[in-house]
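Narrative of activities, Objective 1.

The group set out to show that a structural description can be obtained from nothing but a protein's sequence at a throughput compatible with the screening campaign. Below is one input-output pair from the validation batch, recorded exactly as produced.
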Amino acid sequence: MIAALLAAALAVSGASAEKASAGPEAGACPAPVRIQPRYPVKLARANKTGTVLVGARFDDCGRVIETRVDESSGEPLFDAAARESVARYVLSEAQRAKALDGWVQAPVKFGGFRDVVPRDVPWPRSHRKPRYLPDDQAVGFDDIAAFKAAPRGDTSHFYREPYGMVQANTGEVFRTVMAPDKADPSVFWLEYLIQPAPPASPVEPAARTITAAIARYRLVEEGGEPVVRLGILCERPADECQKLRDFLFQGLPFAKPRRR
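Output recorded for this entry:
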């Protein structure tokens, strides 16, 4: 039911892809970074393991701007999670020196865990029936790129996704991920992700997953009642962003709005 609602509220037409940056400004290159992949919940529960060899193309700063699967794990969920993590890498000079025809290969391993169980988002009981109000404070990032460059979510664990993954008839896949803020237990971050449809030809590069929007859930108490101040930063067409806002203000599955 939740997946159907999400599809109806958020479905868009046509494939989407991030545009590569025109090039780094002097002194603006970020430090090298490697992002741990999210272990797909379904495969973690089944104790599935695998390795994906991801090809990555990068800009002059080492930021990955395109990914492809050079060697599949045999599990599409592993392949997608591996590409999603590599897409957020910033490669070191030593890694970039290994490039062939502008591409490097990054192996991403899933496995070595026992009884892996996804964690529930540690949402406090005090805000299980809150009021949802627009946040009067800025989200804190000028754009999604700034958010991705300085992730605020807790990635040391993987959490159950608040909504089911949805695939549109166009082939696009829509999903959300959520995690608590590392520094502030009263703040939670949600990312709305779009995986474009696979290319028509296997020789065409696959478009990378994009973060189309982020939402900050700030838990406060106002007038003696629990309130969630919800701030949303969306980089989609205006009508799509409005649908997303309307959907998110209906409340999370585990924290539905208080009835007045």
